[in-house]
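Project standup — Tuesday

K.O.: blocked on the structure for the chain from last sprint. Re-posting the sequence here as requested.
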Amino acid sequence: MVDPMWILLLEAGVALSLFILVIWWTAKPRKKDDGNDVHDAKDVTGEDDGNGDKKE
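H.V.: unblocked you, prediction finished:
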């Protein structure tokens, strides 16, 4: 009779592969921005516009 342990090993291998795939997919480095998001955040909060002038 064939040992059914291979089914458990196959399932464990598939689960490990999916786990590694999810970690790799979510941990990819993001594209570098040109820094516009920092200036946009200042504009939204009403702070200065980078020239020392207050936003209205």
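K.O.: great, moving the ticket to review. The mean pLDDT is 75. The first helix runs from residue 5 to 26.
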